[in-house]
Design a protein that fits this description.
Blueprint: H1 2-8, E1 18-31, E2 50-63, E3 68-74, H2 79-93, E4 100-104, H3 112-118, H4 121-128, E5 131-135, H5 145-156, H6 165-181, H7 192-198
């Protein structure tokens, strides 16, 4: 916990950006009957019956101090899918960074072994050397600022039925573009000093 909190309070450095990553999913729901649209004095009417169209996986990546985020909607979230997101992040979004300080939970796909499963050893090593990984503690996922951004995404964009992957990708891309244009930053205020007081029960008694 203190390791992650220490990273969050480092000064902004574009050569060593702090990026938080998290994953979630969204059930794709189709309509059996078309909703009846709004009319004066009458809300939209949606039938209770629906059809399940599978699950879309969400990769959320956010740089809190820069107010920048990227969301990928995929069909799976295997080791290779995570490795591909890392490669795209390093090569496309942070090509000039010496290292990316990556904060995420310790899911079994979230490690450099996934890079070696997805790419040739030389490429996997190149990518791994540009990562400085900081894991949130078990039961401490609330320390990952990407969870905040996922909550905003679900509230502003995904809080309704979306029928298919293409529609979801398009709408999430529009949300991402709007949010990046407004440069919405996350101001993290919980410090190590706060943790030692408020979470005193978690520390050993010497």
């Amino acid at each position: 916990m203190e390791d992650v909190l220490g990273v969050y309070h480092l000064p902004y450095n574009p050569e060593y950006p702090v990026v938080c990553m998290d994953e979630s999913c969204k059930q794709m729901i189709g309509e059996v009957r078309q909703p009846i649209p709004y009319a004066p004095g009458r809300p939209v009417r949606i039938d209770d019956e629906y059809v399940r169209n599978g699950v879309a996986e969400i990769f959320m990546e956010v740089e809190p101090l820069a107010g920048r985020r990227h969301v990928a909607i995929t069909e799976r979230r295997t080791r290779k899918d995570w490795a591909m997101q890392i490669k795209q992040m390093l090569d496309n979004r942070y090509p000039e960074a010496s290292k990316v300080r990556l904060v995420m939970d310790n899911l079994n796909t979230h490690n450099t072994a996934s890079l070696y499963e997805a790419f040739e050893p030389e490429e996997a090593r190149r990518l791994a050397e540009r990562l400085e990984i900081h894991y949130t503690p078990k039961h401490g996922s609330w320390l990952n600022m990407a969870e905040i951004e996922l909550s905003v995404l679900k509230g502003q964009c995904l809080g309704r039925r979306i029928a298919d992957m293409t529609t979801m990708q398009a709408e999430v891309a529009a949300w991402e573009n709007d949010r990046n244009n407004s440069a919405r930053k996350i101001v993290w205020q919980f410090t190590t000093a706060d943790a030692r007081i408020k979470l005193k029960r978690l520390y050993p008694k010497l």
